[in-house]
Amino acid sequence: MTQSALFDKIDLSLIRVLHTVISECSVSRAAIRLQTSQPAVSAQLRRLRELTGDPLLVRSGQGMAPTDVALNLLAPAAAILQHAQSMFGHKSAVRGFDAAKAELTFRIATTDYLDPFFLPELTLHLRRLAPLVKVEVVQLTTDLDYRRSLASGDIDLVIGNWLAPSDELHLGRLLTDEVVCLVSEDHPAARLPKEGKRAWTVAQYLDAEHIVPPPLHPGALGIIEEHLAKKGLERRIVVRSPHFSQLPYMVAGSLLVLTTSKRFCERYVKQYRVKMIRCPVSFPAMNYYQLWHDLTHQSAASRWLREQVREVVRGLQQVRPPLRNEASPPAMPH
User: Fold this and answer.
1) Contact status, residue 227 vs residue 161, Cβ threshold 8 Å
2) Distance in angstroms between the alpha carbons of the first and the last residue of the chain
3) Do residues 189 and 276 touch, judged by C-beta distance below 8 A?
4) How many Å apart are CA 249 and CA 269, to the nearest integer?
5) Which among 124, 120, 123 is positioned nearest to 112, based on CA atoms?
6) pLDDT digits over 6-53, tens only?
7) Are 38 and 31 in contact (CB under 8 A)?
8) C-alpha closest to that of 179 among 212, 139, 224, 141
9) Domains defined for the chain, CATH in brackets
10) Rg for the chain, CA atoms, rounded
């Protein structure tokens, strides 16, 4: 078959199927994302196998895995879809995004570091404006390659904090906050003066018992550890937990120290017997961002989603959002 004849057999929908099947490693999941039937996707996969001369997906344990050929095709397929969006997507952007009628799924990778009310308020906000839209929140952990997930279209948006965000992605700053320490009211540091000879020292801070969340990607230290390492310092970490919103409760019943943003800590000082204190180590401001890929940069739906995120964050900076049917905080340990 000549190159011309081969090219004539390829259309944009086939490339979209290729990209989705390889990303999902599943015909059934690809069919759901493409909003079509599994037999239709299977038929397209057979065409792709004939065109490439490769199985593309092979059995691996109880699931399927992409071949090397498939993995090599993923980035070019994403680039083609991105260019097509740039060429023709402006029309939908001009028409705007009708949130009230839209039926799609937003996939957002984030943590609860920014504010314990952020995810609940964002979810409620999206439900009010786009009742037919589905929202999938993916936990931002070391198991998730968020750069690849954004590039493949598996995730629409990533929200988090980094000292130096990835420069190959689009970036929108959401919030800047100062770094403080959260300790129990019974912690020795809570009873020391802020300034003077008896104030909490750097050495005492480093030797304290620290509780931390895990880093956000493999090989990372975490932004606090990264900054300390640049100063040649290291603190004593005794607890690591991925459940960030539970950390203040553990701090309240122990001598653990949590170092994080002031906004996050403020949410807990009236609930638990905890106190915010100045950190003796000077930290730069903690910045939170939303990151997205060229793949969705011109998408009207994705632009709308990013604006809703900004609006929710702006609201959080003004007032504490009301909790629906707010329950009493759990009893504190003695």
Assistant:
1) no
2) 78
3) no
4) 10
5) 120
6) 455 567 888 888 888 888 888 888 888 777 888 888 888 998 898 889
7) yes
8) 224
9) 3-88 (1.10.10.10), 99-175+287-318 (3.40.190.10), 179-284 (3.40.190.10)
10) 24
